[in-house]
């Protein structure tokens, strides 16, 4: 056999091997067995070529429990199936959304919202290591989720539109809902110390907030100290402004401290379950009945959200039908 023929034979053999290996890798029994070998559990579904395994559903349940502050050792079968259905729909949506264009600024905002849930960069890095994630892989996950949400929004846009007649009907039938009690507008300087914070860090932050309080009583500018020291990233560049709120929207100890203040007055440090605050009462709005024109935006948002929930439920069912393989319970 000459060299050219030999080279062609080798190439054909290699391509044939790759082709056979690809077919084998895509075979359901092989993928199921391979997942078991690598500790991923059984293959539960295949959606657009991507497998969903026991470990994926378990992770989704843990995340859901964490966000809902639920502590349990084992999920009921119906909860396990619901989590699997959501993962199937999410995977299908991500597949459809692969070509959606999302701005880097939007992805960065979502990524930073995750980052700011941790007290410092060390805790953030430890959480990533514990989840076997790098910053890059998490960025890609956030980007994929952003694309999927955008695709879903575009898909159900026609189903969530709200007309003026719908808004007016709700206002007239439930006008009492649009009565506003007295509301306070407060700014705060905040140092985070949630329940899981180590005692020595809590003590350090307590001393820091007390020192900042002394500086304020000495006449230093509240907005400047907020900008330099506050750990509430959402408000620190806006003088710590939390906007208006009623008693039902804030922790009781926060409200109790705020209502004792006169307009423009600054509080001593207080501690809530989130951490330490120094409050400044900036405005007081008296109780009143909101007009329809004032309430229309909120009503439209409420009705659109209700329609969105129903539209997403229907979409989850539709996307679930795209699973090419679904393991029998």
Question: Can you walk me through this structure?
Answer:
The model is unreliable at 3-25 (pLDDT under 50). Among the domains are: 1-38; 182-286, Roll (Chitinase A, domain 3). Helix 8 (164-173) packs across helix 12. The chain has helices spanning 3-26, 28-37, 54-67, 77-96, 104-115, 121-130, 135-156, 164-173, 199-217, 222-229, 252-259, 292-320; strands spanning 43-47, 50-53, 179-180, 183-192, 241-245, 270-272, 275-285, 288-289, 323-326. The chain starts with a helix and ends with a strand. With 329 residues, the protein is α+β, with helices and mostly antiparallel strands.
In brief, what are we looking at here?
With 329 residues, this protein is an alpha+beta fold.
Strand arrangement in the largest pleated sheet: 5-4-7-6
How many helices? 12
The pLDDT mean sits at: 84
Number of strands: 9
| Alpha-beta classification | alpha+beta
Oligomer: single chain
Poorly predicted spans = 3-25
C-alpha end-to-end distance: 56 Å
CATH level 1 class label of the domain at 182-286: Alpha Beta
Q: Rg from C-alpha positions? A: 27 Å
CATH architecture of the domain at 182-286: Roll
- Beta-strand fraction estimate: 5-15%
Shape: globular
Order of helices and strands: HHEEHHHHHHEEHHEHEEEHE
Largest sheet: 4 strands, antiparallel
At the fold tier of CATH, the topology name of the domain at 182-286 is: Chitinase A, domain 3
